[in-house]
C-alpha cells in the first residue's frame, strides 16, 4: 500500500504531491504528539514494554525501508523506535544510528533467565512472595528439560543443629535438591561457603510455638521453594530431624510416589475434635476437622494450593489459637476437605509420642544405637504406590546435638551414605 503511494508520489501531479505532503504532515503531527504522550505515560513501564514487544522493537532493523526512501520518512521510523524504546539512552542514539539503539537497549534474556531461581534472600513482601509463588503455567508440557528436585525446608529457631549429618547426606547429589532455612530473625550466624546451608536462609519472621505464626512460616517456606520451578516435592523438617536413609533412596521414594504425605486423623478426644470451634462454620464443620503431624511431604500441586489458599487460612487465623494448635490442624483439615484422595494420610517423619504430653520424646546420645535406627528404618509396614513396603518413615525426630557423633559414626554403614 505504502509502496504504491510512493510510486505515485514520484510520477503524479502537484496536486497529488500536495495531498501527500499534507497527509504526511498530519501524520507527523500525530506521531509527535503520540510520542510525547506515550513516553510520559509509559516511561515507568519501559522495562515491561520492552519485554512484551520484542518483535516490534526490532522491526526497524528487520524490514528494509521503502526504496528509495524519501528523506522525510526517516523521522517517522525513529519516532516509532523512540516510542517503543523510549528510555533516555536510546533517544540519544535514535538520531544517529538505529542499529546501535537495538544493541544498546537492555539485553533481552529468554526462558533460561525466567527459569533461574532467585537467590533465597530477597526483598519481596509477604504479599508479593505469595502472589508470585501461586503462578501455574497453563500449558502442561514444558518446552525444556529440568531434573525434578526435592525441596528440603528447615523450620528452625537458630542453626540447623544436625547440619554435619545433613552435609554428609547431600554430598554428591547436587542438582537433585534445594535447601531453604527459616530461622528466627534475631538469629545470626555465618554459614561457611563450603556448607550446603550457605546462603539458603529465606526472609523470616518470628515464630511462636503453637501459634499461627507457625503456619505462616510454613507457607513462607513453601512459597520460597515454589519460586524454583524444578522443585517438585516439598519436605518440612525441623532442626532436630534426621534422615533415616541415604539420599538416593529418599529422593526416589518421594519423586516416584503417587501420593502426598499429610496425616489426616479424626481424633475424637479433646486434643482433636475438642480444638474445633463452631465459629469455623460454614467453611469447616466438625466432621471435616482433622489432626496430623506438622511434618509433611507434599508435591508441587498441593504446595501451590496451600500458598494460595484464601478460604481456610483466615478461618484458622481467626478461630484457631492455643490451645488450638493450627500447625497440627490447618493442612490436615484442608487436605481432608479438598484433596483427600491425594494423600496417603500418613507422615514420613517418625516421632515418638508414647510418653504423652505436648512434646514428643527427645533422643540423646545413649538412645542412638544400631538396633534403634534399624527399628526406625524397617520396623513397620505400610502402603506405597499400592504395594506393601517396610519403609514407612524417611525421617525421624527429635534428636539433640549430643546424638550427632553416634549418628555420624553409624550413618555411612547403616544408611549407606555415599
Ligand atoms: C510506524 O508507525 C506507523 C503508525 O503507527 C506504522 O504504520 C508503521 O508501520 C510504523 N513503522 C515501523 C517501522 O514500525
Ligand atoms: C538519563 O537518565 C539518567 C537518570 O535517569 C540521568 O541522570 C541522565 O541525565 C539522563 N540522560 C539524558 C541524556 O537524558
Ligand atoms: C521411578 O520408578 C520407575 C519404575 O518403577 C523407575 O524406572 C524410575 O527410575 C524411578 N524414578 C526414580 C527417580 O528413581
Ligand atoms: C542407598 O541405600 C540403598 C539401600 O537403602 C542402596 O541400595 C543404595 O546403593 C544406596 N545408594 C548409594 C548411592 O549409596
From TrEMBL:
One of its GO terms (molecular function) is glycosyltransferase activity. Its main location: membrane. It comes from Lupinus angustifolius. It is a single-pass type II membrane protein. It is found in: Membrane. Pfam families: Branch. Coiled coil: none annotated. Keywords: Glycoprotein, Glycosyltransferase, Membrane, Transferase, Transmembrane, Transmembrane helix. The chain crosses the membrane at residues 12-38. The keyword Methyltransferase does not apply. InterPro entries: BC10-like (IPR044174), Glyco_trans_14 (IPR003406). The keyword Iron does not apply. It comes from the Eukaryota. PANTHER family: CORE-2/I-BRANCHING BETA-1,6-N-ACETYLGLUCOSAMINYLTRANSFERASE FAMILY PROTEIN-RELATED, CORE-2_I-BRANCHING BETA-1,6-N-ACETYLGLUCOSAMINYLTRANSFERASE FAMILY PROTEIN. One of its GO terms (cellular component) is membrane. This is Uncharacterized protein.
Amino acid at each position: 500500500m505504502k509502496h504504491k503511494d510512493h510510486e505515485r508520489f514520484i510520477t503524479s501531479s502537484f496536486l497529488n504531491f500536495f495531498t501527500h505532503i499534507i497527509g504526511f504532515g498530519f501524520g507527523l503531527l500525530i506521531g509527535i504528539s503520540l510520542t510525547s504522550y506515550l513516553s510520559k505515560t509509559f516511561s515507568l513501564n519501559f522495562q515491561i514494554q520492552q519485554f512484551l514487544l520484542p518483535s516490534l522493537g526490532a522491526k526497524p532493523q528487520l524490514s528494509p525501508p521503502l526504496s528509495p526512501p524519501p528523506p522525510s520518512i526517516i523521522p517517522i521510523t525513529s519516532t516509532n523506535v523512540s516510542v517503543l524504546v523510549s528510555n533516555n539512552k536510546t533517544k540519544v542514539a535514535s538520531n544517529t544510528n538505529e542499529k546501535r539503539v537495538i544493541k544498546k537497549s537492555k539485553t533481552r534474556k529468554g526462558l533460561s533467565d525466567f527459569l533461574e531461581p532467585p537467590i533465597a534472600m530477597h526483598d519481596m513482601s509477604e504479599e508479593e512472595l505469595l502472589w508470585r509463588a501461586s503462578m501455574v503455567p497453563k500449558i502442561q508440557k514444558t518446552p525444556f528439560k529440568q531434573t525434578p528436585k526435592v525441596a528440603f525446608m528447615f523450620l528452625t529457631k537458630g542453626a540447623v543443629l544436625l547440619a554435619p549429618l545433613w552435609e554428609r547426606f547431600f554430598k554428591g547429589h547436587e542438582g537433585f535438591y534445594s535447601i531453604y532455612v527459616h530461622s528466627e530473625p534475631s538469629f545470626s550466624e555465618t554459614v561457611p561457603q563450603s556448607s550446603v546451608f550457605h546462603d539458603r536462609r529465606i526472609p523470616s519472621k518470628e515464630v511462636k510455638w503453637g501459634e499461627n505464626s507457625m503456619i505462616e512460616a510454613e507457607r513462607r517456606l513453601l512459597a520460597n521453594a515454589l519460586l524454583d520451578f524444578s522443585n517438585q516435592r516439598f519436605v518440612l523438617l525441623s532442626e532436630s530431624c534426621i534422615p533415616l536413609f541415604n539420599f538416593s533412596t529418599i529422593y526416589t521414594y518421594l519423586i516416584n510416589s503417587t501420593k502426598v504425605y499429610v496425616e489426616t486423623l479424626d481424633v475424637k478426644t479433646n486434643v482433636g475434635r475438642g480444638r474445633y470451634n463452631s465459629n469455623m462454620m460454614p467453611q469447616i464443620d466438625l466432621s471435616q476437622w482433622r489432626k496430623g503431624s506438622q511434618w509433611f511431604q507434599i508435591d508441587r500441586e498441593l504446595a501451590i494450593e496451600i500458598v494460595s489458599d484464601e478460604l481456610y487460612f483466615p478461618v484458622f487465623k481467626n478461630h484457631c489459637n492455643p490451645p488450638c494448635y493450627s500447625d497440627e490442624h490447618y493442612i490436615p483439615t484442608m487436605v481432608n476437605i479438598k484433596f483427600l484422595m491425594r494423600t496417603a494420610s500418613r507422615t514420613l517423619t517418625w516421632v515418638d509420642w508414647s510418653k504423652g504430653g505436648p512434646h514428643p520424646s527427645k533422643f540423646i546420645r545413649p538412645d542412638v544405637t544400631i538396633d534403634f535406627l534399624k527399628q526406625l528404618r524397617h520396623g513397620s509396614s505400610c502402603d506405597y504406590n499400592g504395594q506393601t513396603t517396610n519403609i514407612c518413615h524417611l525421617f525421624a525426630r527429635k534428636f539433640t546435638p549430643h546424638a550427632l557423633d553416634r549418628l555420624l559414626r553409624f550413618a555411612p554403614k547403616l544408611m549407606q551414605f555415599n
